[in-house]
Write a structure and sequence with these properties.
604 residues, TIM Barrel, Rossmann fold, 3 domains, 20 strands, binds 1,3,4-trihydroxy-5-OXO-cyclohexanecarboxylic acid, EC 4.2.1.10, aromatic amino acid biosynthesis, 3-dehydroquinate dehydratase activity
Length: 604
Protein backbone atom coordinates (compact mmCIF):
# COMPACT_ATOMS: atom_id res chain seq x y z
CA UNK A 1 0.00 0.00 0.00
CA UNK A 2 1.43 3.36 -0.96
CA UNK A 3 1.82 5.83 1.83
CA UNK A 4 0.71 9.36 1.24
CA UNK A 5 2.96 11.66 3.17
CA UNK A 6 1.12 13.81 5.62
CA UNK A 7 3.92 15.69 7.33
CA UNK A 8 4.94 18.69 5.24
CA UNK A 9 8.64 18.34 5.98
CA UNK A 10 10.60 20.88 4.01
CA UNK A 11 13.22 18.96 2.11
CA UNK A 12 16.57 19.60 3.62
CA UNK A 13 15.41 21.07 6.91
CA UNK A 14 14.32 18.86 9.74
CA UNK A 15 14.37 21.23 12.59
CA UNK A 16 10.60 21.03 13.00
CA UNK A 17 10.92 17.42 14.09
CA UNK A 18 11.93 17.14 17.70
CA UNK A 19 15.25 15.45 18.17
CA UNK A 20 16.09 15.17 14.49
CA UNK A 21 19.37 16.30 13.03
CA UNK A 22 19.15 19.12 10.54
CA UNK A 23 20.17 18.32 7.01
CA UNK A 24 22.42 21.36 6.93
CA UNK A 25 24.18 20.11 10.01
CA UNK A 26 24.51 16.65 8.51
CA UNK A 27 25.79 18.00 5.25
CA UNK A 28 28.44 19.91 7.09
CA UNK A 29 29.53 16.75 8.92
CA UNK A 30 29.57 14.18 6.22
CA UNK A 31 32.43 13.81 3.83
CA UNK A 32 32.24 13.02 0.16
CA UNK A 33 32.83 9.35 0.76
CA UNK A 34 30.74 7.02 2.88
CA UNK A 35 32.52 3.77 3.64
CA UNK A 36 30.30 0.70 3.79
CA UNK A 37 31.07 -1.56 6.73
CA UNK A 38 30.24 -5.24 6.71
CA UNK A 39 30.94 -8.09 9.07
CA UNK A 40 29.68 -11.55 9.82
CA UNK A 41 29.33 -10.83 13.54
CA UNK A 42 28.59 -7.61 15.44
CA UNK A 43 32.09 -7.71 16.93
CA UNK A 44 33.68 -8.02 13.50
CA UNK A 45 31.56 -5.19 12.13
CA UNK A 46 32.58 -2.88 14.96
CA UNK A 47 36.20 -3.92 14.58
CA UNK A 48 36.07 -3.01 10.90
CA UNK A 49 34.37 0.27 11.67
CA UNK A 50 37.08 1.10 14.20
CA UNK A 51 39.71 0.41 11.58
CA UNK A 52 37.93 2.37 8.83
CA UNK A 53 37.43 5.26 11.22
CA UNK A 54 41.13 6.09 11.14
CA UNK A 55 40.71 7.41 7.62
CA UNK A 56 36.95 7.90 7.27
CA UNK A 57 34.44 9.32 9.70
CA UNK A 58 31.40 8.69 7.52
CA UNK A 59 30.34 5.05 7.70
CA UNK A 60 27.43 2.97 6.52
CA UNK A 61 26.64 -0.03 8.75
CA UNK A 62 25.27 -2.74 6.52
CA UNK A 63 23.32 -4.47 9.26
CA UNK A 64 21.69 -6.76 6.71
CA UNK A 65 25.03 -8.60 6.36
CA UNK A 66 24.64 -9.84 9.95
CA UNK A 67 22.67 -13.02 10.68
CA UNK A 68 20.93 -11.21 13.53
CA UNK A 69 21.14 -7.43 13.06
CA UNK A 70 19.33 -6.61 16.31
CA UNK A 71 22.09 -8.24 18.29
CA UNK A 72 24.50 -5.59 16.98
CA UNK A 73 22.59 -2.61 18.35
CA UNK A 74 24.18 -2.45 21.84
CA UNK A 75 27.69 -2.61 20.36
CA UNK A 76 26.79 -0.05 17.72
CA UNK A 77 25.41 2.26 20.39
CA UNK A 78 28.55 1.96 22.47
CA UNK A 79 30.76 2.56 19.45
CA UNK A 80 28.90 5.66 18.34
CA UNK A 81 28.80 6.96 21.89
CA UNK A 82 32.56 6.60 22.15
CA UNK A 83 33.23 8.13 18.75
CA UNK A 84 31.26 11.30 18.42
CA UNK A 85 33.15 12.18 15.26
CA UNK A 86 31.45 9.38 13.32
CA UNK A 87 28.43 10.01 11.15
CA UNK A 88 26.63 6.71 10.65
CA UNK A 89 24.06 5.40 8.24
CA UNK A 90 22.09 2.32 9.29
CA UNK A 91 21.07 0.08 6.40
CA UNK A 92 19.19 -3.18 6.68
CA UNK A 93 18.24 -3.78 3.08
CA UNK A 94 15.89 -6.63 2.33
CA UNK A 95 16.71 -9.24 -0.27
CA UNK A 96 13.91 -7.97 -2.49
CA UNK A 97 15.82 -4.71 -2.82
CA UNK A 98 19.17 -6.35 -3.37
CA UNK A 99 20.24 -6.56 0.29
CA UNK A 100 20.78 -9.57 2.51
CA UNK A 101 18.06 -9.15 5.12
CA UNK A 102 15.55 -11.97 4.94
CA UNK A 103 13.20 -10.62 7.62
CA UNK A 104 9.93 -8.78 7.26
CA UNK A 105 9.30 -5.09 6.69
CA UNK A 106 8.30 -4.75 10.34
CA UNK A 107 11.56 -6.36 11.40
CA UNK A 108 13.53 -4.02 9.14
CA UNK A 109 11.73 -1.06 10.58
CA UNK A 110 12.44 -2.16 14.12
CA UNK A 111 16.14 -2.54 13.36
CA UNK A 112 16.34 0.88 11.74
CA UNK A 113 14.43 2.49 14.56
CA UNK A 114 16.72 0.97 17.16
CA UNK A 115 19.77 1.95 15.15
CA UNK A 116 18.54 5.52 15.07
CA UNK A 117 17.99 5.41 18.81
CA UNK A 118 21.51 3.98 19.16
CA UNK A 119 22.94 7.08 17.53
CA UNK A 120 22.91 6.53 13.76
CA UNK A 121 22.27 9.96 12.29
CA UNK A 122 20.87 8.55 9.06
CA UNK A 123 18.74 5.56 8.20
CA UNK A 124 18.42 4.09 4.74
CA UNK A 125 14.95 2.98 3.78
CA UNK A 126 14.27 1.39 0.42
CA UNK A 127 11.52 2.89 -1.67
CA UNK A 128 9.99 -0.60 -1.97
CA UNK A 129 9.72 -0.68 1.83
CA UNK A 130 8.52 2.90 2.16
CA UNK A 131 5.76 2.19 -0.31
CA UNK A 132 4.42 -0.44 2.08
CA UNK A 133 4.43 1.85 5.07
CA UNK A 134 2.22 4.60 6.35
CA UNK A 135 3.87 7.97 6.79
CA UNK A 136 3.58 7.86 10.60
CA UNK A 137 5.57 4.63 10.57
CA UNK A 138 8.27 6.40 8.61
CA UNK A 139 8.16 9.34 10.96
CA UNK A 140 8.98 7.02 13.85
CA UNK A 141 12.44 6.73 12.39
CA UNK A 142 12.83 10.48 12.33
CA UNK A 143 11.46 10.85 15.80
CA UNK A 144 14.51 8.92 16.96
CA UNK A 145 16.60 11.76 15.64
CA UNK A 146 17.70 10.26 12.36
CA UNK A 147 17.53 11.78 8.91
CA UNK A 148 15.97 9.67 6.24
CA UNK A 149 17.52 8.40 3.05
CA UNK A 150 14.98 6.90 0.72
CA UNK A 151 16.85 4.74 -1.69
CA UNK A 152 16.20 2.80 -4.84
CA UNK A 153 18.42 0.16 -6.42
CA UNK A 154 18.21 -1.13 -9.96
CA UNK A 155 20.56 -4.05 -10.52
CA UNK A 156 19.69 -4.36 -14.18
CA UNK A 157 19.76 -0.98 -15.85
CA UNK A 158 19.82 2.79 -15.68
CA UNK A 159 16.40 3.96 -16.67
CA UNK A 160 13.59 6.27 -15.70
CA UNK A 161 15.63 8.07 -13.06
CA UNK A 162 13.19 10.98 -13.06
CA UNK A 163 10.27 8.61 -12.57
CA UNK A 164 11.98 7.05 -9.55
CA UNK A 165 12.80 10.50 -8.20
CA UNK A 166 9.12 11.43 -8.50
CA UNK A 167 8.17 8.33 -6.55
CA UNK A 168 10.63 9.16 -3.76
CA UNK A 169 10.00 12.88 -3.48
CA UNK A 170 6.55 12.71 -1.84
CA UNK A 171 8.17 11.19 1.25
CA UNK A 172 10.23 14.34 1.56
CA UNK A 173 13.29 12.47 2.71
CA UNK A 174 16.36 14.41 3.70
CA UNK A 175 18.30 12.44 1.08
CA UNK A 176 17.18 10.78 -2.14
CA UNK A 177 19.41 7.94 -3.27
CA UNK A 178 19.18 6.31 -6.68
CA UNK A 179 21.63 3.54 -7.48
CA UNK A 180 21.29 2.02 -10.94
CA UNK A 181 23.44 -0.27 -13.03
CA UNK A 182 25.49 0.93 -15.97
CA UNK A 183 25.26 -1.42 -18.90
CA UNK A 184 26.97 1.07 -21.17
CA UNK A 185 29.39 3.92 -20.58
CA UNK A 186 26.71 6.40 -21.59
CA UNK A 187 24.51 5.22 -18.71
CA UNK A 188 26.90 7.25 -16.58
CA UNK A 189 26.05 10.29 -18.63
CA UNK A 190 22.36 9.61 -18.01
CA UNK A 191 23.04 9.47 -14.27
CA UNK A 192 25.17 12.60 -14.26
CA UNK A 193 22.63 14.59 -16.26
CA UNK A 194 19.97 13.46 -13.80
CA UNK A 195 22.12 14.65 -10.90
CA UNK A 196 22.66 18.00 -12.58
CA UNK A 197 18.90 18.37 -13.09
CA UNK A 198 17.94 17.49 -9.55
CA UNK A 199 20.80 18.86 -7.48
CA UNK A 200 18.86 22.00 -6.64
CA UNK A 201 15.61 20.19 -5.91
CA UNK A 202 16.81 17.74 -3.29
CA UNK A 203 19.86 16.21 -1.64
CA UNK A 204 20.51 13.48 -4.15
CA UNK A 205 22.98 10.62 -4.15
CA UNK A 206 23.35 9.02 -7.58
CA UNK A 207 25.62 6.14 -8.52
CA UNK A 208 25.81 3.60 -11.33
CA UNK A 209 26.88 0.15 -10.21
CA UNK A 210 28.77 -2.34 -12.34
CA UNK A 211 32.15 -2.32 -13.99
CA UNK A 212 30.98 0.33 -16.39
CA UNK A 213 29.73 2.57 -13.61
CA UNK A 214 33.12 3.72 -12.40
CA UNK A 215 32.69 7.09 -14.12
CA UNK A 216 29.70 7.88 -11.95
CA UNK A 217 31.50 6.72 -8.82
CA UNK A 218 34.32 9.17 -9.49
CA UNK A 219 32.59 12.03 -11.34
CA UNK A 220 29.13 11.81 -9.76
CA UNK A 221 30.07 14.20 -6.97
CA UNK A 222 30.96 16.85 -9.48
CA UNK A 223 27.58 16.41 -11.15
CA UNK A 224 25.81 16.96 -7.84
CA UNK A 225 25.76 13.73 -5.86
CA UNK A 226 25.98 14.71 -2.20
CA UNK A 227 28.32 11.84 -1.48
CA UNK A 228 29.34 8.49 -2.86
CA UNK A 229 29.97 5.04 -1.41
CA UNK A 230 33.22 3.15 -1.12
CA UNK A 231 34.35 -0.23 0.14
CA UNK A 232 36.47 -0.42 3.27
CA UNK A 233 38.87 -2.72 1.41
CA UNK A 234 39.14 -4.57 -1.87
CA UNK A 235 37.01 -7.69 -1.46
CA UNK A 236 34.55 -5.98 0.90
CA UNK A 237 32.46 -4.26 -1.74
CA UNK A 238 28.77 -3.89 -0.92
CA UNK A 239 27.79 -3.01 -4.46
CA UNK A 240 29.05 -4.16 -7.87
CA UNK A 241 31.88 -1.96 -9.11
CA UNK A 242 32.37 -0.28 -5.75
CA UNK A 243 35.87 1.14 -5.33
CA UNK A 244 37.93 0.89 -2.15
CA UNK A 245 37.97 4.13 -0.17
CA UNK A 246 41.73 4.49 -0.32
CA UNK A 247 41.79 4.01 -4.09
CA UNK A 248 39.04 6.57 -4.47
CA UNK A 249 41.06 9.06 -2.42
CA UNK A 250 44.61 8.31 -3.43
CA UNK A 251 44.35 7.12 -7.01
CA UNK A 252 41.30 9.07 -8.15
CA UNK A 253 41.84 12.01 -5.77
CA UNK A 254 38.11 12.31 -5.29
CA UNK A 255 38.48 15.09 -2.74
CA UNK A 256 40.21 17.31 -5.27
CA UNK A 257 38.00 16.80 -8.31
CA UNK A 258 36.32 20.00 -9.44
CA UNK A 259 34.72 21.51 -12.50
CA UNK A 260 38.14 22.11 -14.00
CA UNK A 261 39.34 18.52 -13.67
CA UNK A 262 40.12 17.08 -17.07
CA UNK A 263 38.96 13.56 -17.65
CA UNK A 264 40.98 10.87 -19.44
CA UNK A 265 40.61 7.14 -19.61
CA UNK A 266 41.69 3.87 -21.07
CA UNK A 267 39.00 2.32 -23.24
CA UNK A 268 38.64 -1.25 -24.42
CA UNK A 269 37.75 -4.71 -23.25
CA UNK A 270 38.76 -6.29 -20.96
CA UNK A 271 39.98 -3.35 -18.95
CA UNK A 272 39.39 -4.25 -15.33
CA UNK A 273 42.98 -5.15 -14.58
CA UNK A 274 44.58 -2.36 -16.56
CA UNK A 275 47.43 -0.67 -14.74
CA UNK A 276 47.01 2.50 -16.79
CA UNK A 277 44.69 4.20 -14.27
CA UNK A 278 47.16 3.58 -11.48
CA UNK A 279 50.08 4.78 -13.58
CA UNK A 280 48.47 7.83 -15.17
CA UNK A 281 46.66 9.02 -12.06
CA UNK A 282 49.94 8.83 -10.21
CA UNK A 283 51.60 10.86 -12.96
CA UNK A 284 48.86 13.51 -12.87
CA UNK A 285 49.13 13.72 -9.13
CA UNK A 286 52.88 13.98 -9.12
CA UNK A 287 52.97 16.66 -11.79
CA UNK A 288 50.02 18.50 -10.22
CA UNK A 289 47.88 18.19 -13.31
CA UNK A 290 44.20 18.66 -12.49
CA UNK A 291 43.09 15.52 -14.29
CA UNK A 292 41.71 12.08 -13.56
CA UNK A 293 42.12 8.85 -15.48
CA UNK A 294 39.45 6.14 -15.56
CA UNK A 295 39.08 2.58 -16.82
CA UNK A 296 36.37 2.58 -19.48
CA UNK A 297 35.21 -0.90 -20.30
CA UNK A 298 33.51 -1.09 -23.66
CA UNK A 299 33.55 -2.84 -26.98
CA UNK A 300 31.20 -0.34 -28.55
CA UNK A 301 32.87 2.60 -30.14
CA UNK A 302 29.63 4.55 -30.50
CA UNK A 303 29.10 4.25 -26.74
CA UNK A 304 32.62 5.45 -26.08
CA UNK A 305 32.29 8.39 -28.45
CA UNK A 306 29.08 9.49 -26.72
CA UNK A 307 31.00 9.55 -23.47
CA UNK A 308 33.88 11.47 -25.02
CA UNK A 309 31.48 14.10 -26.29
CA UNK A 310 29.19 14.35 -23.30
CA UNK A 311 31.48 14.23 -20.26
CA UNK A 312 33.58 15.50 -22.12
CA UNK A 313 36.78 13.47 -22.12
CA UNK A 314 40.00 15.24 -23.01
CA UNK A 315 41.89 12.20 -24.15
CA UNK A 316 41.85 8.46 -24.38
CA UNK A 317 44.24 5.59 -24.25
CA UNK A 318 42.69 3.18 -26.70
CA UNK A 319 43.18 -0.53 -26.45
CA UNK A 320 41.79 -3.76 -27.80
CA UNK A 321 39.44 -4.12 -29.59
CA UNK A 322 39.11 -0.47 -30.59
CA UNK A 323 42.53 0.52 -31.84
CA UNK A 324 41.75 0.03 -35.49
CA UNK A 325 38.08 0.94 -35.49
CA UNK A 326 38.63 4.33 -33.88
CA UNK A 327 40.72 5.55 -36.81
CA UNK A 328 37.76 6.47 -38.97
CA UNK A 329 36.41 8.79 -36.30
CA UNK A 330 39.56 10.81 -36.04
CA UNK A 331 40.14 14.10 -37.76
CA UNK A 332 43.81 13.33 -38.28
CA UNK A 333 46.37 10.84 -37.06
CA UNK A 334 50.13 10.72 -36.99
CA UNK A 335 51.90 8.98 -39.86
CA UNK A 336 52.64 5.75 -38.00
CA UNK A 337 49.02 5.25 -36.87
CA UNK A 338 47.98 5.67 -40.44
CA UNK A 339 50.61 3.29 -41.69
CA UNK A 340 49.86 0.46 -39.30
CA UNK A 341 46.16 1.22 -39.18
CA UNK A 342 45.96 1.44 -35.39
CA UNK A 343 45.98 4.20 -32.87
CA UNK A 344 46.38 3.92 -29.09
CA UNK A 345 46.17 7.58 -28.09
CA UNK A 346 43.40 10.04 -28.73
CA UNK A 347 43.22 13.73 -27.97
CA UNK A 348 40.07 15.76 -28.05
CA UNK A 349 40.60 19.34 -29.12
CA UNK A 350 38.56 22.14 -27.60
CA UNK A 351 36.34 22.28 -30.64
CA UNK A 352 35.55 18.60 -30.19
CA UNK A 353 37.70 17.28 -33.02
CA UNK A 354 39.57 14.07 -32.29
CA UNK A 355 43.21 13.44 -33.12
CA UNK A 356 45.07 10.15 -32.99
CA UNK A 357 48.61 9.11 -32.15
CA UNK A 358 50.41 5.84 -31.75
CA UNK A 359 52.80 5.61 -28.82
CA UNK A 360 52.98 1.80 -28.91
CA UNK A 361 55.37 1.68 -31.83
CA UNK A 362 57.90 4.06 -30.33
CA UNK A 363 57.52 2.28 -26.98
CA UNK A 364 58.37 -0.99 -28.62
CA UNK A 365 61.27 0.36 -30.65
CA UNK A 366 62.96 2.48 -28.02
CA UNK A 367 63.97 -0.23 -25.53
CA UNK A 368 65.48 -2.22 -28.40
CA UNK A 369 67.15 0.73 -30.00
CA UNK A 370 68.82 1.66 -26.76
CA UNK A 371 70.55 -1.70 -26.75
CA UNK A 372 70.89 -2.64 -30.35
CA UNK A 373 71.35 -0.77 -33.64
CA UNK A 374 68.27 -1.77 -35.56
CA UNK A 375 69.43 -1.01 -39.08
CA UNK A 376 70.15 -4.38 -40.59
CA UNK A 377 69.30 -6.24 -37.37
CA UNK A 378 67.72 -9.64 -37.84
CA UNK A 379 64.64 -9.82 -35.68
CA UNK A 380 62.19 -12.63 -35.04
CA UNK A 381 58.71 -11.45 -34.15
CA UNK A 382 56.37 -13.99 -32.57
CA UNK A 383 52.74 -13.37 -33.40
CA UNK A 384 50.78 -11.59 -36.09
CA UNK A 385 48.15 -9.69 -34.11
CA UNK A 386 47.95 -6.04 -33.12
CA UNK A 387 51.12 -6.01 -31.02
CA UNK A 388 53.05 -7.84 -33.71
CA UNK A 389 51.81 -5.37 -36.27
CA UNK A 390 53.19 -2.45 -34.31
CA UNK A 391 56.47 -4.31 -33.83
CA UNK A 392 56.88 -5.40 -37.44
CA UNK A 393 56.08 -2.01 -38.97
CA UNK A 394 58.17 -0.19 -36.37
CA UNK A 395 61.15 -2.45 -36.93
CA UNK A 396 60.89 -2.27 -40.69
CA UNK A 397 60.87 1.48 -40.51
CA UNK A 398 64.16 1.30 -38.63
CA UNK A 399 65.67 -0.86 -41.33
CA UNK A 400 65.55 -4.21 -39.54
CA UNK A 401 65.14 -7.51 -41.31
CA UNK A 402 61.99 -8.95 -39.78
CA UNK A 403 60.86 -12.58 -39.62
CA UNK A 404 57.36 -13.42 -38.48
CA UNK A 405 56.44 -16.68 -36.77
CA UNK A 406 52.82 -17.29 -36.05
CA UNK A 407 50.61 -20.30 -35.41
CA UNK A 408 48.43 -19.28 -38.30
CA UNK A 409 50.79 -19.06 -41.24
CA UNK A 410 48.21 -17.16 -43.21
CA UNK A 411 48.06 -14.28 -40.77
CA UNK A 412 51.86 -14.22 -40.72
CA UNK A 413 51.99 -14.06 -44.50
CA UNK A 414 49.44 -11.26 -44.69
CA UNK A 415 51.35 -9.15 -42.21
CA UNK A 416 54.64 -9.95 -43.89
CA UNK A 417 53.26 -8.88 -47.24
CA UNK A 418 51.90 -5.62 -45.88
CA UNK A 419 55.05 -4.71 -44.01
CA UNK A 420 57.54 -6.14 -46.50
CA UNK A 421 58.77 -8.57 -43.90
CA UNK A 422 59.43 -12.33 -44.11
CA UNK A 423 57.82 -15.32 -42.52
CA UNK A 424 59.64 -18.21 -40.94
CA UNK A 425 58.54 -21.80 -40.26
CA UNK A 426 58.76 -23.21 -36.78
CA UNK A 427 61.17 -25.94 -37.79
CA UNK A 428 63.62 -23.33 -39.03
CA UNK A 429 63.76 -21.38 -35.81
CA UNK A 430 66.17 -23.63 -33.90
CA UNK A 431 68.55 -23.55 -36.86
CA UNK A 432 68.52 -19.76 -37.09
CA UNK A 433 69.91 -17.05 -34.97
CA UNK A 434 68.70 -13.51 -34.52
CA UNK A 435 69.79 -10.26 -33.07
CA UNK A 436 66.51 -10.04 -31.22
CA UNK A 437 63.52 -12.25 -30.54
CA UNK A 438 60.34 -10.42 -29.66
CA UNK A 439 57.23 -12.00 -28.23
CA UNK A 440 54.18 -10.12 -29.45
CA UNK A 441 51.67 -12.83 -28.47
CA UNK A 442 49.69 -13.09 -25.23
CA UNK A 443 51.55 -16.24 -24.29
CA UNK A 444 52.93 -16.03 -20.78
CA UNK A 445 50.45 -13.41 -19.77
CA UNK A 446 48.64 -13.54 -16.47
CA UNK A 447 45.36 -15.33 -17.07
CA UNK A 448 46.50 -17.02 -20.28
CA UNK A 449 47.12 -20.76 -19.98
CA UNK A 450 50.84 -21.33 -19.50
CA UNK A 451 52.67 -22.43 -22.62
CA UNK A 452 56.22 -21.85 -23.68
CA UNK A 453 56.21 -20.22 -27.07
CA UNK A 454 59.72 -21.33 -27.87
CA UNK A 455 61.88 -24.11 -26.53
CA UNK A 456 65.26 -23.14 -25.08
CA UNK A 457 67.12 -24.49 -28.11
CA UNK A 458 65.10 -22.16 -30.31
CA UNK A 459 66.21 -19.07 -28.47
CA UNK A 460 69.29 -18.08 -30.37
CA UNK A 461 69.44 -14.35 -30.05
CA UNK A 462 71.46 -11.52 -28.61
CA UNK A 463 68.49 -10.17 -26.76
CA UNK A 464 64.98 -11.35 -25.92
CA UNK A 465 62.09 -8.94 -25.58
CA UNK A 466 58.72 -9.98 -24.22
CA UNK A 467 55.96 -7.45 -24.80
CA UNK A 468 53.87 -9.13 -22.09
CA UNK A 469 54.17 -7.06 -18.93
CA UNK A 470 52.10 -9.02 -16.48
CA UNK A 471 53.80 -10.94 -14.98
CA UNK A 472 57.11 -9.16 -15.26
CA UNK A 473 58.95 -12.46 -15.39
CA UNK A 474 57.26 -14.37 -18.17
CA UNK A 475 58.33 -17.92 -19.01
CA UNK A 476 60.14 -16.58 -22.07
CA UNK A 477 62.02 -14.01 -20.01
CA UNK A 478 62.99 -16.66 -17.48
CA UNK A 479 64.13 -18.99 -20.20
CA UNK A 480 66.25 -16.27 -21.79
CA UNK A 481 67.79 -15.41 -18.46
CA UNK A 482 68.59 -19.03 -17.86
CA UNK A 483 70.51 -18.95 -21.11
CA UNK A 484 72.37 -15.88 -19.90
CA UNK A 485 70.76 -13.62 -22.45
CA UNK A 486 69.93 -9.98 -21.91
CA UNK A 487 66.22 -9.35 -21.75
CA UNK A 488 63.76 -6.52 -22.17
CA UNK A 489 60.58 -6.98 -20.21
CA UNK A 490 57.25 -5.53 -21.25
CA UNK A 491 57.04 -3.13 -18.30
CA UNK A 492 59.55 -0.87 -19.98
CA UNK A 493 57.38 -0.64 -23.05
CA UNK A 494 54.19 -0.23 -21.07
CA UNK A 495 55.58 2.66 -19.08
CA UNK A 496 57.09 4.30 -22.13
CA UNK A 497 53.86 4.25 -24.14
CA UNK A 498 52.00 5.69 -21.14
CA UNK A 499 54.63 8.33 -20.55
CA UNK A 500 54.34 9.55 -24.13
CA UNK A 501 50.55 9.66 -23.75
CA UNK A 502 50.96 11.79 -20.65
CA UNK A 503 53.14 14.18 -22.62
CA UNK A 504 50.74 14.37 -25.55
CA UNK A 505 47.87 15.16 -23.19
CA UNK A 506 49.57 17.55 -20.80
CA UNK A 507 52.50 19.00 -22.69
CA UNK A 508 54.65 18.24 -19.63
CA UNK A 509 57.52 15.78 -19.35
CA UNK A 510 56.24 12.54 -17.84
CA UNK A 511 57.54 11.38 -14.45
CA UNK A 512 58.73 8.19 -16.07
CA UNK A 513 60.69 6.78 -13.16
CA UNK A 514 57.77 7.11 -10.78
CA UNK A 515 55.45 5.63 -13.35
CA UNK A 516 57.73 2.66 -13.64
CA UNK A 517 58.03 2.34 -9.90
CA UNK A 518 54.29 2.27 -9.32
CA UNK A 519 53.72 -0.29 -12.08
CA UNK A 520 56.53 -2.57 -10.94
CA UNK A 521 55.27 -2.35 -7.37
CA UNK A 522 51.72 -3.27 -8.40
CA UNK A 523 52.96 -6.15 -10.54
CA UNK A 524 55.14 -7.48 -7.75
CA UNK A 525 52.21 -7.39 -5.39
CA UNK A 526 50.11 -9.27 -7.91
CA UNK A 527 52.89 -11.78 -8.47
CA UNK A 528 53.16 -12.35 -4.73
CA UNK A 529 49.42 -12.98 -4.60
CA UNK A 530 49.48 -15.31 -7.63
CA UNK A 531 52.85 -17.03 -7.84
CA UNK A 532 53.73 -18.34 -11.33
CA UNK A 533 53.17 -21.95 -12.33
CA UNK A 534 56.24 -24.11 -11.88
CA UNK A 535 58.39 -24.20 -15.00
CA UNK A 536 57.62 -27.90 -15.53
CA UNK A 537 53.95 -27.06 -16.02
CA UNK A 538 54.77 -24.44 -18.59
CA UNK A 539 56.26 -27.13 -20.74
CA UNK A 540 53.36 -29.45 -20.35
CA UNK A 541 51.72 -28.33 -23.55
CA UNK A 542 54.23 -28.51 -26.36
CA UNK A 543 51.39 -28.38 -28.85
CA UNK A 544 50.59 -24.95 -27.58
CA UNK A 545 54.18 -23.91 -27.66
CA UNK A 546 53.61 -21.86 -30.68
CA UNK A 547 52.94 -18.21 -31.06
CA UNK A 548 49.39 -17.53 -30.28
CA UNK A 549 47.33 -16.47 -33.25
CA UNK A 550 44.99 -14.17 -31.38
CA UNK A 551 45.39 -10.51 -32.17
CA UNK A 552 47.31 -8.95 -29.39
CA UNK A 553 47.95 -5.32 -29.10
CA UNK A 554 50.68 -3.65 -27.13
CA UNK A 555 48.07 -2.03 -25.05
CA UNK A 556 47.94 -1.29 -21.43
CA UNK A 557 46.02 -4.24 -20.22
CA UNK A 558 47.88 -6.67 -18.05
CA UNK A 559 46.15 -9.51 -19.78
CA UNK A 560 47.52 -8.43 -23.10
CA UNK A 561 50.92 -8.99 -24.56
CA UNK A 562 52.57 -6.01 -23.30
CA UNK A 563 55.58 -4.87 -21.50
CA UNK A 564 57.64 -6.24 -18.71
CA UNK A 565 60.96 -5.48 -17.15
CA UNK A 566 62.02 -7.55 -14.24
CA UNK A 567 64.15 -7.10 -11.31
CA UNK A 568 64.73 -9.54 -8.55
CA UNK A 569 67.26 -7.36 -6.83
CA UNK A 570 64.67 -5.26 -5.07
CA UNK A 571 65.64 -2.22 -7.09
CA UNK A 572 63.13 -0.93 -9.53
CA UNK A 573 63.85 -1.11 -13.18
CA UNK A 574 64.00 2.63 -13.24
CA UNK A 575 66.93 2.56 -10.87
CA UNK A 576 69.02 0.39 -13.09
CA UNK A 577 67.25 0.18 -16.38
CA UNK A 578 69.10 -0.42 -19.51
CA UNK A 579 72.66 -0.20 -18.35
CA UNK A 580 72.67 -3.83 -17.38
CA UNK A 581 72.66 -4.71 -21.05
CA UNK A 582 75.44 -3.68 -23.36
CA UNK A 583 74.51 -2.55 -26.85
CA UNK A 584 75.30 -5.29 -29.30
CA UNK A 585 76.01 -4.92 -32.96
CA UNK A 586 73.75 -6.71 -35.35
CA UNK A 587 75.32 -9.72 -36.93
CA UNK A 588 75.87 -9.32 -40.61
CA UNK A 589 73.73 -12.29 -41.45
CA UNK A 590 72.21 -13.17 -38.16
CA UNK A 591 74.95 -15.73 -37.75
CA UNK A 592 76.49 -17.46 -34.82
CA UNK A 593 76.99 -14.43 -32.60
CA UNK A 594 73.46 -14.83 -31.44
CA UNK A 595 73.50 -18.52 -30.91
CA UNK A 596 76.49 -18.22 -28.62
CA UNK A 597 75.51 -16.07 -25.75
CA UNK A 598 78.58 -14.61 -24.09
CA UNK A 599 78.30 -16.45 -20.83
CA UNK A 600 76.14 -18.97 -19.15
CA UNK A 601 75.69 -16.80 -16.12
CA UNK A 602 72.35 -15.28 -15.33
CA UNK A 603 71.93 -11.79 -16.61
CA UNK A 604 70.57 -10.52 -13.33
O1 LIG B 1 23.20 2.12 -1.85
C1 LIG B 1 24.37 1.94 -1.66
C2 LIG B 1 25.33 2.05 -2.74
C3 LIG B 1 25.98 0.71 -2.96
O2 LIG B 1 25.05 -0.22 -3.48
C4 LIG B 1 27.10 0.85 -4.00
O3 LIG B 1 26.98 0.24 -5.04
O4 LIG B 1 28.08 1.55 -3.70
C5 LIG B 1 26.57 0.19 -1.68
C6 LIG B 1 25.57 0.10 -0.56
O5 LIG B 1 26.23 -0.28 0.62
C7 LIG B 1 24.89 1.43 -0.38
O6 LIG B 1 23.83 1.26 0.54
Amino acid sequence: MKAVPTTPATTGVLDHIPGSVSTHFLRSRIGKVCVAIIGSTPAEMIEKAAEAMRENTFLEFRLDYLPNPLAAIPKLKQFLYEHGEITAIATCRRTISGGKFKGSIAAELEILEKSAAAGCQLVDLELQTAEHLKQPQIEILRSQGAALIISYHDFESTKDLDGIFDRIQPYLPEFVKIVSTAKTLSDNVTMMRFLERTRDKANVIGICMGEQGIISRVLGLRAGSIFTFAAAHVGEETGPGQIAARTLRETYRIDQLDAGTRVYGVAGNPIKHSLSPLMLNMAFRRETVNAVFLALQTTKLSDLLTLVREVPLHGLAVTMPLKEEILKHLEKTDAISEKIGACNTMVRAQDGRLFGFNTDVAAMIRPLERRLPLKGAKVLVLGAGGAARAAVFGLKEKGAEVFILNRSAEAAQTLARQAKAKTIKRDQVAKSSFDAIINATPSGMHGVKPASILEPNEINARIVFDMVYNPIDTPLIRMAREKGLPVITGVEMFVYQGARQFEIWTGKPAPEEEMLRVVVHALRQQAAAHPPEPASKEKEHPAKAEPHPRPASPARHPEKPVKAVAEKSGKTVAEKPIKAVKAVKPSANGSKAASKPAAKKKSR
